[in-house]
Amino acid sequence: MAGATIDLDFNNTDDVDETFVSHKSADPETEQFDQTIGLIEDMIMDEEFRSIQQAFLTKYAQEFDPGLDENKLIYTDIHKEYLTIVDDFVLNKIKRSQPSFNLDIFMKQLESRQEELEGEIFEFLLTFTDFLAFKEWMLDHRRSLTLPALDINSCLQSISLTSARGTNPTPLLDQVKLDDDNNSTSNQQQSTTLDLGITGTKIKKPQDPKKK
Amino acid sequence: MVLLSILKKLRRKEKEMRLLLVGLDNAGKSTILSRINGEEIDSVAPTLGFNIKTFNYADYVLNVWDVGGQKSLRSYWRNYFEATEAIIWVVDSVDKMRLGECRAELQDLLKEERLMGSSLLVFANKQDIVGACSLHEIRTILELDSIHKHHWTVMPCSALTGQNLLEGIDWLVNDVAQRLFDPD
């Protein structure tokens, strides 16, 4: 578990099935279960989820110190908040699509069918709960803020940042502003699906007053 | 964290244990961890956050969470109780002035619901130093014999010499293993 790296920027999703729609099962219970699993699988590709992740990175990466051997206590709080966000996102997505969804039943099904669930999707979900993997993800992003020109991992986000600031490293305060500008672009694309249902978390989507 | 935490329990890797390493500041927690892990121990600084070390012992993967013990940090310990199978409580056997404080913190910790059932190893550290409290004294002052809801043991040890460190881990791993992986 130590040093495990995960690809959380979702560039390599070529070999992931996009949907489960074609999968017909014998009984309704199995069918709904498979549909639920399919919805979770789709999260890998979900633009909305990726933009939530980006907002999270932007908000918290500066708390992570690549020069520090030990972990700051706040890393734990940030990780917990992230897990809450992921959890809420998955559950709300399922509930939007399956109004009759019942978490307790789903959990029982998961338990009884766990032998069937060797798929990478659950490894994917479980990597969220791995603190060390989470820390590396945040640190990678933190390093990319310090050295934009050398960044490879988050080039998706950095392209617009880099062009906006030229080649000079930008002080953190300014970066926050730049990141917000950057994120408002993706906000516009998804403004129709922003019913995130995320309650009790501190994440706020950057608002662009010009759109109001 | 409903879904993810349940998933994690379902898919819990076999033969993996989470150990929580706590105690007052300057007890030697991080030094013990470094020593077990075969690292240099002469430059260990006070822990202000936490360390995680993963190592293999026997057939098991041990994830040890070492959280700083300063007074201002102790209220954060609770953030690390989840899924803890065993507690290593480290005592500075030389710091007689604070053994009362040490007892209070330990007894408080053991009331935690999320730690119910976890095995407890008390390390009476710094036995290499002349004047260190004896095992008997530690046992009495910390009121260890009043502990009934946890499997526990107390061992004299020295992070400096390595005395009893592996013996302690061995006891802990066996105790957890009997409970978790060998229910018969």
Automatic annotation (TrEMBL), chain A:
Keywords: Cell projection, Cilium, Cytoplasm, Cytoskeleton, Mitochondrion, Nucleus. GO terms for cellular component: centrosome; cilium; mitochondrial intermembrane space; nucleus. GO terms for biological process: maintenance of protein location in nucleus. Residues 172-212 are annotated as: Disordered. InterPro entries: ARL2BP, BART_dom, BART_sf. Plays a role as an effector of the ADP-ribosylation factor-like protein 2, ARL2. It holds the Pfam family ARL2_Bind_BART. Residues 183-196 have a biased composition (Low complexity). It comes from Rotaria magnacalcarata. It is found in: Cytoplasm, Cytoskeleton, Cilium basal body; Cytoplasm, Cytoskeleton, Microtubule organizing center, Centrosome; Cytoplasm; Nucleus. This is ADP-ribosylation factor-like protein 2-binding protein. Belongs to the ARL2BP family. The keyword Cytoplasm applies. Residues 33-145 form the BART domain.
From TrEMBL, chain B:
It comes from the Eukaryota. Keywords: GTP-binding, Lipoprotein, Magnesium, Metal-binding, Myristate, Nucleotide-binding. Gene3D superfamilies: P-loop containing nucleotide triphosphate hydrolases. GTP binds at G23, L24, D25, N26, A27, G28, K29, S30, G69, N125, K126, Q127, D128. GO terms for molecular function: GTP binding; GTPase activity; metal ion binding. InterPro entries: Arl2, ARL2/3, P-loop_NTPase, Small_GTP-bd, Small_GTPase_ARF/SAR. Mg(2+) binds at S30, T47. NCBIfam families: small_GTP. Belongs to the small GTPase superfamily. Arf family. This is ADP-ribosylation factor-like protein 2.
